[in-house]
């Protein structure tokens, strides 16, 4: 017979670290007690101000972290912020770039300046998230010898996330041919690609 027992959890510091997470990350709650049959929602909030942005742009810090979730009497669970971020972006009601701007983005996909103007028009929160994720991806690309990633692959992946298709009925799916979908996906990737291969530091700092 399997018994259900309460669990005590806590995000703990990694070896040689002074805190359980980076300064730009806030976890609430970072520790807690869960009884059998109960659940606990944990909020991860990324906040980047000008001070943090300077460290990121100078290379002193990176928009990357690994969290260690300790379960009393159990195994430690390692969580990468990247995976959590992807899950978050894919689960939102609307993609990072709103549906009403998708056609404009696809039309401008071959022109970097036009793409940049579109991003500038995004609401501040969406614009900030878009730019800092792009900065994070650029950081990943600076280590291609280790991670074997390339800009086109990341642009294709994040193009489908930033410009996620709206929910469609079965009839809509049949009407859109595979060739048309491939064209759309290429334009999405082209839009994101601009922000992976061009310097965005002045854009991020608002200069």
From TrEMBL:
Any Pfam family matching the protein: OCRL-like_ASH
SMART domains: RhoGAP
Chain segments annotated as transmembrane: none
Any GO BP: signal transduction
Domain of life, source organism: Eukaryota
Residues in Rho-GAP domain copies: 1-204
UniProt-recorded name of the protein: Inositol polyphosphate 5-phosphatase OCRL-1
